[in-house]
Amino acid sequence: MASINLIERILEGFDPVGNGLDNDFVLTKLTAMKGCGCKVPRDVLLQLLETFKTDLVINNEEVDIGLDSCVIPLRHPGLRLVQTTDFFYPLVDDPYIMGRITCANVLSDLYAMGVSECDNMLMLLGVAVALTESQRDIIVRLFIQGFKDAADEADTKIRGGQTVRCPWLLLGGVATSVANESEIIKVDRAVPGDVLVLTKPIGGQVAVNSYEWIKKNNGKIEEFGLDSAKIMTAFKQVCEQMCRLNRNAAKLLHKYEAHSSTDVTGFGILGHAENLARVQKQPVEFIIEKLPIIEYMDEIVDKMIATGGEGFRLFEGRSAETSGGLLIAMSEKNAKEYIQELHSLDRAPAWIIGRVAAKTNDSVARIIPNVLRQSISSSL
Amino acid sequence: MASINLIERILEGFDPVGNGLDNDFVLTKLTAMKGCGCKVPRDVLLQLLETFKTDLVINNEEVDIGLDSCVIPLRHPGLRLVQTTDFFYPLVDDPYIMGRITCANVLSDLYAMGVSECDNMLMLLGVAVALTESQRDIIVRLFIQGFKDAADEADTKIRGGQTVRCPWLLLGGVATSVANESEIIKVDRAVPGDVLVLTKPIGGQVAVNSYEWIKKNNGKIEEFGLDSAKIMTAFKQVCEQMCRLNRNAAKLLHKYEAHSSTDVTGFGILGHAENLARVQKQPVEFIIEKLPIIEYMDEIVDKMIATGGEGFRLFEGRSAETSGGLLIAMSEKNAKEYIQELHSLDRAPAWIIGRVAAKTNDSVARIIPNVLRQSISSSL
């Protein structure tokens, strides 16, 4: 396969016919749940995982299943196994882009812990039973190519995996690093006075869903009086940011001495802020005062709410992101430099979106009432 | 949850009502494909994985995706990352037993390479969308308990995973070991004169399917004139062997200097023998002369073939096994001692089922015409 220019491909949009598929072929029809929107709700999950509770202390070190990656002291002195897995369903039409997103999304859990070197990737694939052999071959090849290109960009290799048949097209991976302790940042050291940094805008779920309304021609565009051109722009914007690795963001966590870090995915920005708060050594409050949102997505949500809808609970911080940005607590001075240097590396903005306050007991996270919404336009 | 005696539980059979489920609840209805029977066909898979071909040499060492686990030289001298993943769908009714089988099946890929210490397990779970919340909670808890009990037995821990919703109940895991080179056996050293050893009988797919015919009451028992009592016995037999870890079998590979080893799962005994032949340094032929088969399963297959059926292609060596035994090439003298010691540890038989012959070019595997069938009765 010829080399693929990611940004060109995103801007051109996916052409099923040019890729050997029927004109009306839509990858996202191969699932009823999109991307990280398929997660089992967080409270249910925590309850079901109770069985593991007795396992949570090894070698006198707490290892928390709630973190982005598990970190395991190995039999070999000084080394830790850092490992994460993720799988989900297609949320964009282009299997190549889906491969990129899937790989970026899996790697992000390593990056959230400051681990920038992935030693191995496994690829997980459930091939939708409804596909014809010809469709299967086209889609799987494109997906693998995208997954591999993202792995190449991350300087890692795919060395195994599992491929089964499944009613939905299931896509995922496992990322593993055997790291020295110094490669892993401590994510539980947030202190009052820190600020919160976010490295990608939210609103991804709104963007992929409203794009699908256009594709499905299901009347929602007209119902809410939406601007299709703006949705198309937002969709390309979210595709680019979902494909963008959080690797530079991870490397800079060390340089700018981040106190705490996670990535924003299926539980929404507040869900992940809550998860991160829960593991802090010192009781703190993560206060989100500003929500950077992909341009026009806030307007869509406003219109949905105006007609009695939930608007994906975006403003509540509960809308799922796929391959979202890092959410970081660090000193304000460092945050400003972090944002500046990340921008020079990734050519994409990041923002201070809140602060860390003292608390006397259990740590929490919240979004302030009348949170400031910042509309983030595409740089493509 | 109270401690669960595996063998008692297998012998008693699964009682949905006693576990809070409806009387007619059948776990295997939550998938159309059972266990390792869901794999994408081997030739299709190899073709689709072509994209990875350029990746197959790192550090001047070949790492073959076709092996049971990937083995990756790490940045840390002398250490290898050995890793495998597997996921599939329920093939028995009892979610607890399914958890045991799933974990044993994933671990088996490490064990096939002689690696007996697993440093971390991840659990992969797709919760069937058709389940009520109450069913979900019961099933997931039992599954997790079984998975954890098997991990305990393997002296390993579950430290992470992913849980999504899925049309089918999807079950799996990732097993990882960071091992010294000496912990890994070379699986590509079979030589003419070796014998082939198998550590669990085949016929698992026949056993779980014929058991399902009874549960579904779909007329097949009558159609083929089958003995339900014998099927029930075979089903319990296969449950026990699917739950049985190949860990002792793995440890003894070192002691008895195995030249080559794999585990028998979704591609059937011949498929895995072929995979193993393909990676041998020296051209050889794996010749299977005897098929140890779970008692009565050969009779079922005979009856299916007599009426024009394929009989799961059991006698061709193509019937899928789930959490099957190890298939090993070693010297005849060592094989006899291996089998004896394994029996004393696992209280289960193993057999010499064939031999390794010289070949002038590409290695192959085959089953001889009129292969001897050995009926293996349950020891429960």
UniProtKB/TrEMBL annotation, chains A, B:
Any single biological process term in GO: selenocysteine biosynthetic process
GO CC annotations on file: cytoplasm
Organism: Caenorhabditis brenneri (Nematode worm)
Pfam families: AIRS, AIRS_C
Cross-referenced NCBIfam families: selD (TIGR00476)
Protein name: Uncharacterized protein
Domain of life (superkingdom): Eukaryota
Ranges of residues in domain PurM-like N-terminal: 68-167
Keywords for this protein: ATP-binding, Kinase, Nucleotide-binding, Selenium, Transferase
PANTHER family membership: INACTIVE SELENIDE, WATER DIKINASE-LIKE PROTEIN-RELATED, SELENIDE, WATER DIKINASE
Lineage of producing organism: Eukaryota, Metazoa, Ecdysozoa, Nematoda, Chromadorea
Residue ranges annotated for the PurM-like C-terminal domain, each copy included: 192-364
Gene3D superfamilies reported in the protein's UniProt record: PurM-like C-terminal domain (3.90.650.10), PurM-like, N-terminal domain (3.30.1330.10)
Keyword Metal-binding: no
